[in-house]
Design goal:
- This protein is mainly alpha-helical.
- It has a single domain (about 5-185, about 200-390), classed as Up-down Bundle (Growth Hormone, Chain: A), CATH 1.20.1250.20.
- The chain has 18 helices and no strands.
- It has helices at about 5-25, 25-30, 35-65, 70-80, 85, 90-105, 110-120, 125-135, 140-155, 155-180, 195-200, 205-215, 215-245, 250-280, 280-300, 305-335, 340-365, 370-390.
- α9 packs antiparallel against α10 (about 155-180) and α13 packs parallel to α17 (about 340-365).
- The radius of gyration is 20 Å and the shape is globular.
- The protein starts with a helix and ends in a 9-residue tail after the last helix.
Length: about 400
């Protein structure tokens, strides 16, 4: 590890730590500030819609104006967006911060592209495993620390302290990228506001062009993960509510469970990265879903700390396979000169799929807390079938 890969991993040490603190108690915090489950789902939909709007312009910027400029600039903006979370008197201020943060994520296609540019093709499984594992090492204690804060100070004051830590850690990450990140695109142009406006206008044509440029296998991979993306908010937005409302574990116990989950991903990350390189991306994804689906059934049935702990350990095992496998498969299939556009298109479509999903999850949770997770099981089975019957790995991997 050296150069940009090392710079990104070091900056992610701070980023991953902070967001591992927020995940366990984010939705309960929003609810405590006056947002019922339906509103929490709608907040997720609004955030996803904003993020979807900026992804394709971000992809155009990454391929035309370079990766570094947009990454550095917007990392600073994201840091300042968390001031809304720290001082929010109600959920509406949280929504404002969420919108600003998601607008700033216009830099994500550039981040995806600069990472793909920096990992050798023959070591992509291990490279993406390193990205998933090393930045997560400090996060082992993060959920338990967040659990301690909300238990000691109360949910709202504790979460304000958590978001204060997020703000300072994001600022550190932004300065690391400012001083050490290097451009990988040859002859990038300087970003101009008028050009960014044109990128927004060209978004839909860029999606069509990117879809046309995709090989057949990549199209099926894209469809599979569109279904997976529709499933994702069911867990991200409502798992913590289900755990606290239905399973009935305490806040500190919930923090410990998330700490155990993070530890599992770190311990198994590198060995499973080697597995992805050895057995292939497709098999790794199928094995991951063969773990995810039964684990979700067990999650629905969980009624104790021990039961929930076992479930999240299984989630960690599956996650160690699917993330490096999926990222490596994309890098294998997409030519370097088109990575910004095509990766941006894929992620944009995934984000747009979450727009109705978040709102639907809120409605389903309001009807019965178990419904979002039952739907998640069906969607996971659908993804497995698509990967099994329609996806084949390329014989020659892109550099």
């Amino acid at each position: 590890m050296r150069g940009n890969l090392l710079t990104l991993i070091v900056s992610w040490l701070f980023v991953f730590f902070t967001f591992s603190m927020t995940f366990s108690f984010e939705s309960p915090f929003f609810r405590e500030l006056g947002a019922p489950p339906v509103v929490i789902g709608l907040m997720g939909s609004v955030g996803a819609m904003v993020l979807g709007l900026v992804r394709i312009p971000g992809a155009v910027i990454a391929d035309k104006y370079g990766r570094r400029q947009i990454i550095v600039m917007m990392t600073f903006v994201i840091a300042f967006s968390f001031l809304f979370y720290i001082f929010a008197p109600d959920w509406r201020f949280i929504l404002m911060g969420m919108v600003i943060s998601n607008l700033s994520l216009i830099y994500q296609p550039a981040l995806d592209a600069i990472l793909a540019d920096s990992v050798p093709s023959e070591k992509r499984g291990m490279g993406y495993a390193a990205v998933n594992v090393i930045p997560n090492i400090p996060t082992i204690a993060a959920p338990a620390f967040a659990g301690y804060l909300v238990t000691s100070y109360g949910l709202v004051p504790g979460m304000r302290l958590v978001y204060t830590v997020v703000f300072f850690c994001m600022m550190i990450a932004a300065f690391i990228r400012l001083f050490f990140l290097r451009e990988t695109l040859e002859k990038p142009q300087r970003i101009k506001l008028d050009s960014m406006k044109m990128a927004f206008k060209d978004s839909f044509s860029a999606i069509r062009e990117a879809w046309r440029d995709m090989p057949r296998t990549l199209r099926f991979v894209t469809v599979a993960f569109l279904v997976s993306a529709f499933e994702e908010p069911m867990f991200r937005m409502f798992t913590s509510l289900y755990v606290l409302d239905v399973v009935g574990v305490g806040k500190m116990e919930w923090g410990i469970i998330n700490t155990a989950w993070v530890a599992t991903t770190i311990i198994l990350g590198f060995p499973f990265g080697k597995v992805v390189d050895k057995i292939g991306r497709r098999k790794s994804i199928l094995i991951a879903y063969s773990i995810f689906i039964p684990s979700t059934i067990l999650f629905v049935l969980a009624r104790s700390f021990t039961h929930l702990l076992v479930v999240h350990l299984l989630f960690g095992v599956g996650g160690c396979l699917i993330m490096p496998a999926y990222n490596a498969l994309l890098a294998d299939l997409i030519p370097k000169e088109k990575r910004g556009r095509i990766m941006g298109t894929i992620v944009t479509l995934n984000i747009l799929a979450t727009v109705p999903s978040s709102a639907l999850g809120g409605l389903l949770y309001g009807a019965s807390p178990v419904y979002p997770f039952l739907l998640s099981i069906a969607l996971g089975a659908t993804v497995s079938l698509i990967i099994l019957f329609a996806v084949r790995e390329p014989k020659i991997k892109e550099k």
